Amino acid sequence: MPVACALVPRFRLIAAIAEREILTRPAALAPEPGAAQLIGEVTAAAERFGLRAGMRMGEALSRCPELALIPPDPERAESSWEEALRRLEGIGAEVESDRAGEAFFEVGGLERLLGGIEGVLRRVRSLFEGAPSEARSNPFHVGAARIGVGPGRFCAYVAAVMRGCSADARARVSATRENLEEQPVSYCIVPPGAAAEFLDPMPVSLLCGRRGDEADDLPNELERLGISTLGRLAGLPRDAVADRFGRLGLEALQLARGVDEPLRPRPVREPIAVELELPEAVSGQQLERALELLISRLLAHGERRGRTLRVLRLSSRLAAGGGWRRRIALRRASADRTQLTDALLPHLALLPAPAATLRLEAVALGPDTGEQLTLSSPEQHRRRRITEAVRQTRSAAGADAVLRVLEVDPDSRIPERREVLMPYPEGE
């Protein structure tokens, strides 16, 4: 079934900038705190220096010393893109979107409703062009969406990036990259069976970001070895690619040959999120109390309907500008305030600056749970949790991973005789 890709170029970069004039100068998104030192999306002026997303920062600065690094604002980009996804879901599309600025959906179920594939693409483009004005929260226009259709996810993405051929020009799907960019049409349709021919002349740099941040350096290695196009990559033996690049290389080889996994649409549901505005320069215990209040409000949210929480997203708007976010997956789905607080509190220490707002969202829910009372004391509950932590630590790191100190001869002059290490009993 054909897959469509709706792509807004440089969406995360546009969401992070404060002045549109920056787009006319060499600029790129800086790495997020704690992430690999790879630049993000770049402007057209930076591309003329040979820069692209996923390039190492040192190499980017050596090619373009006047490069401006823009601090990323993932919270603003995610919230703005979420509204665009809900507009797509409003016409009946089952959407998959792993990053802000690009969305995938199957067009087979919408063709009869909207008048064929081209009718679907016209409707999708009108949704982006007709976005409601939100100048305060989203002061950039999302009408520059590129749309591509192909037999798979990656082929549709490449078609959206190149936006090369319309349905009336299917015989030219094997055109070169320069010819594709010269055509004025706003969408590209790759017919079934032409994926390999369409991908053959495309650069390997299009693989950046297709398999997560860990694979962003793979196109650079391929280019150093003289493999500059997807066609050259697709012609390599599978064993040689596996021996040199491992799992990431095999996945890239499959994409270059036009083989892709089926879509995994996200479930359509109402957002379960709470937000709190904070006074200036809140930190320490005040920030912890704000988090506890957000947890209480989230557990009381009507859309939760008694279900446990499995994955949470903690985000913040910073007082100095920009945003911050963290995705927290719980080891076990829970609706207990104490467990949620223990899981979220350590992430507050990672805030790079004072927060102006704090937001907590339930990304994934677990099974229903009952609020059953217990006769055990808090001390007994605490000891059970410690015992469970010891059991899991031993199962992961071995029986000697948890030991206790036992006094043998406290008055001895020899330190080794005073205390010894003994195994931690299972029942304690």
Write structural notes for this entry.
With 428 residues, the protein is α+β, with helices and mostly antiparallel strands. 36% of the residues lie in helices and 20% in strands. It has 16 helices and 13 strands. Strands 4-5-1-6-7 form a 5-stranded mixed sheet, sandwiched between helices. A 4-stranded antiparallel sheet has the order 8-11-9-10, with helices on both faces. Strands 2-3 form a two-stranded parallel sheet. Strand 9 (307-318) and strand 10 form a beta hairpin. The longest helix has 20 residues, at 378-397. It is globular and about 80 Å long. The model is unreliable at 130-143 and 164-185 (pLDDT under 50).
Layout: helices, strands, pairs:
Blueprint lengths: L2 E5 L3 H6 L10 E3 L14 H4 L9 H7 L4 E3 L3 H16 L5 E5 L2 E5 L4 H4 L1 H14 L16 E5 L2 H10 L14 H6 L4 E3 L5 H5 L18 H7 L5 H5 L3 H19 L16 E10 L2 H15 L7 E12 L4 E12 L2 H12 L6 E14 L9 H20 L5 E5 L7 H4 E5 L5
Parallel strand pairs: 2-3, 6-7
Antiparallel strand pairs: 1-5, 1-6, 4-5, 8-11, 9-10, 9-11, 12-13
Helix pairs in contact: 13-14
Name its key features.
alpha+beta, five-stranded mixed beta sheet, four-stranded antiparallel beta sheet, globular
The general outline is: globular
Q: Please indicate the percent range of residues in DSSP E strands (runs of 2 or more).
A: 15-25%
Q: Largest sheet, described in full?
A: 5 strands, mixed
Helix percent reads 25-40%
Query: Quick one: how many beta strands?
Result: 13
For this structure, the quaternary state is single chain
The average pLDDT value, as a whole number, equals 79
Structural class, by secondary structure, is alpha+beta
Placed side by side, the strands forming the largest sheet appear as 4-5-1-6-7
Number of helices: 16
